[in-house]
Amino acid sequence: MVQQTKLIEWRDEFSIGLPEVDRDHRELIASINQFHAALGRGIDAGQVGGVLGGIQSDIAAHFALEEKNMTARGYDQFAAHKLDHERLLDDILDIIDEVHACGRYEPDALATRLSEWFATHFRTHDARLHHWLHSGD
After folding, report:
1. Whole-number Å distance between alpha carbons of 124 and 136
2. Exposed/middle/buried for 70, CB within 10 Å: 0-12, 13-18, 19+?
3. How far apart are CA 39 and CA 75, in angstroms?
4. Which residue from 22, 38, 40, 83 has the fewest beta carbons nearer than 10 Å?
């Protein structure tokens, strides 16, 4: 069973240097960690779908903000970054569909999928964006 610890620890390297985006990153990580804690308490499949739907909605709103900032600044890696955003949103919808179809979920597998995506995205796409935003300083 999933342990009650944080799934994703905030690190300064997650910051891209845009205050509104960085605030959203912190809030999304907090939401994911709250969800992870709920998984550890054994919430039922119906609740998993509902909570994930809310997280998916929050993430979509965050991605819209981040993408707006990237296009306004003419970010040269926008297409690849946006594609990774879309991949996560699709993956979350797939998870919700799987949970509804099966009526159950694997807490460890679910936590791993979310954690791995965020860690990889922050380390690659967001790190490149941060470097690009600050390369002209």
Report:
1. 20
2. buried
3. 37
4. 83
Single-letter amino acid code for the residue at 108: D
The CA distance from 68 to 78, in Å, is: 10
- Tell me what pLDDT residue 49 has: 85
- CA distance linking residue 137 with residue 133, whole number of Å: 8
- Centroid of chain to Cα 50: 16
In the block, residue with structure tokens 């997650």:
14
Q: Which residue has the higher pLDDT, 128 or 112?
A: 128
What rounded mean pLDDT belongs to the chain? 87
pTM (2 d.p.): 0.83
What is the predicted pLDDT for the residue at 75?
96
pLDDT at residue 3 is higher than 80: no
The secondary structure of the chain as a DSSP string is ---SS-SS---GGG--S-HHHHHHHHHHHHHHHHHHHHHHTT--HHHHHHHHHHHHHHHHHHHHHHHHHHHHTT-TTHHHHHHHHHHHHHHHHHHHHHHHHHS---HHHHHHHHHHHHHHHIIIIIHHHHHHHHTT-
